[in-house]
Model the fold of this input.
Amino acid sequence: MIAHVAWRLSRRAAVNLWRAPLLSLVSVLTIGLSLFIGATFVLGLFTARRLLTSWGAQPSMTLYLNAATTDAQGLTLAQQIRGRGDVDVRYVDAAVALQRLRADLGELGPALDGLTQNPLPASLEIRPRAPLAATSLRVLAAELEQSPGVRDVEYGREWLDKLEALGRGLRAFGAGALLAVIGAALMVVANTIRLAVYARRDEIEIMKLVGATDGYVRAPFLMEGALQGVLGAGVGVGAVLAAQHLLLPHASQAFAAAAGVGAPHLLPAHAAALLAAGALVGFVGSWIAVARFLKT
Amino acid sequence: MKKTYPGDPPVLDDITLRVDKGEFIWLTGPSGAGKSTLLRLLFCAEKPTSGQILIGGKNIGRINQAGVPYLRRNIGVVFQDFKLLDNRTVLENVGYALEVLGASDTDIRERARRRLDQVGLSHKAMSLPRRLSGGEQQRVAIARALVNEPTILLADEPTGNLDPSLTDSILQLLFDANARGTTVVVATHDRTLLQRWHRRTVGLERGKLVFDA
Done:
């Protein structure tokens, strides 16, 4: 009995969709548009985060040594730090540092000729072998600062702080905005489906009149909602793929220039998630819409 | 039993009424007397404010929401405006009441056709309701109300929208159902019906039971 009732309800859901093509189309397109906006937003957010990570992912640091440190001591320290295995180390003696400064100053370089002694300290240039998160970089800096003969550590602390703050802000904004987008989409979808349900309120009334349980009344609407959701998600995925196809060649150049990060791509897993989200939105939207008419 | 809505005088006030199994009663009174409300209370579209309504010894005023559909499967209801689904055939409309019981497609078709035959509309089984006259539509509604052989049939002004020439045939269907053992309650403000067909008559006026004869 359950099987033929389920079959009957599924058949009814399909027939109802077919019998009200305009309302069904509006629901499908609304869900499609909402998911397109949501998906584009999420992809944009992920890309922004990847950009931020890439900007902070290749950090280097400089250990400035005390003026009294000799080249031999500096090279020994470099050897010790290299022994950690996770960093590349290069010793830059004071003379080389001055030479670099002269080169960097360009035409103003000769101004350094007046110096009676080299004011620049020797240093060790440290580059982590694997990309490090900001927190790990801080820990490494704190460890190396304790090494003998080290006067100061420079690793773009301010830049990292700003980058981290930006990342935190983006996460908070992203979570809030995503919730707002999902909430708005759900409301729009629920209201669109409610219109469709409203058009069939007589049917609901009659179903209840002849003794249909709430579950029996609700079932075809939920099936229709889920089906509309999946179709809408299909439209949304199609729109994202079309946008990718049309805009990606230009976007890729811009992203590559910005940080070597690939432009956002909709992966099959994302498409599957969107289809599932569409079904869920359609299902929940229908549930909310029908609930109002079941009260009477 | 009493029914009031906040801020308004009672729609039904201190009503005590007993209807025996297999009885046919007219429920009469002017517009606003409370006839429709009384019927709505009987099929649980409303709940009484105080008092109780017993059907087969069970107080339906205390039935929870989930229990209402099961009560309604034993009560057929006919309205003045027919309440048929325009996008379904006559056969589908009649079979609708059987669908919710989980009957098989074959069983639904057979029983719905039998009922349509009883109301003289088997030849219109595949028509849409809008292609039918008012009298025919009401006969479809009665067939739907009776298709699962309910113990009670409630009819709210069943001939109110019909040409007087069609009244007899519609009422005859209700008398036939009553003759088969169904308890029938018909609300009407048309006194000519009561004069032509003598049955127990309950009169309501401004929510009060004014006579029972």
